[in-house]
Amino acid sequence: MTAVFSACTRYLAIIFIGIYMILCFTAISDVEKKTKRKIFYRQAFLITLIYGMYSITAYLKTKSVKVLGMCAATFLLYLLLGYIFVRVYPRSNKFLLLNIWLMLLTGSIMLIRISYTKAERQFLFSICSIALALIVPVIISKIKILRHYSYCYAVLGIIMLAMVLFMADVTYGAKISFDLKFFTIQPSEFVKITYPMFVAGILYRDTSVKNIVISTVLCGIHIILLVLSKDLGSALIFSVAFLFMVYVATGKKSLLLGGLLAGICAAFLAYKIFYHVQVRVAAWVDPWSIIDDKGYQIAQSIFAIGTGSLFGMGLYDGNPNYIPVVQQDFIFSAISEEMGGFFALELILLYFATFVIMFQIALKCRDEFYKLTCFGMAVIYGTQVFLTVGGAIKLIPSTGVTLPLISYGGSSLVSTMIMFSIIQGFNIYDAKGKQEQIIEKTE
Question: How far is CA 368 from CA 69, 83, 91, 418, in A?
Fold first, then answer.
């Protein structure tokens, strides 16, 4: 019975998430309001089916009431988030909300499978992130003075990163977090919120050479602090975000190309200077010759993805814990092994669709500060997904960053939820502004 249900889940989940993605891209296009409402309820129903099947499979495999209770509690928590959010913010982008919901539930089921203890901790962080997610949009939509504190955002980000450099614990060769016994805090995750806001605050009105130089210097300080802390993954994310934000603000391709060339040179210097970068590059180039040592992690990741093939081994039928730090940097490999290559590919499409929605919201914003900030956050999100997935499948060297809303990590979860809430706030503000503009014209 358990084997049959698990096998059915493997195939049906892939079909259901495939249908979900078709509906998702349909909703992104310009369709009627009634059609979008139907799509919304169908997608919500598909998410319920997918998570329900995996929850039952988890219970049948473990025979643990605790596991079933955690699955049920997680689903109800996120369902409550969705219900309250739609009621409180009727102008919010509901399809962005659904995508977030599916990512959170996917991460939840994988963490329950990999480590129940970590899943419990993530559940507690989820409660905190949901509380913040419900508050942030109304703040964003009502307070218009956020743009005037660009230098405060820059200074706050620099202080947080400086504290990491001088006071944080070393984890896997890099200083990235503070260990507070009960939990750890990774300040660079929260800098992902202040960083695009400071760049947007400087450039949204004036893109003169002076302002570009000032923003470049402040950005450079952020990146230097990250490099000195050996958190090169975050340094790369911030660099890419800055380049594209400057390009969007100025429209000058020369600045973008010049920045990309400077980034290539910086990457080469990082390879020459930092030993752990050399290790990751060596593991990327040929993990098999050093599989017993430096190449073990990426080799196990490739084994997991290959073992899962197209349809997966089935939940609890793989060996994801063979991959070091699987619940953080390589959770995509665990998903590929147990849920299958098709599911993993559809997950990539889910992230891409979410990026497109964020980009659409940015384009709709009439306020340049909101537009630039939203675009910067979209680039940070998209770059992080690319680095995580690319590192897991050996497309690029591993950078040690997490998969948003799926990987284990309280700081990552809370900061990403705040980021999405800010973007929802921009969307609500834009919709409200357009409605008021229409009313004024009719009067």
Answer: 46, 31, 20, 20
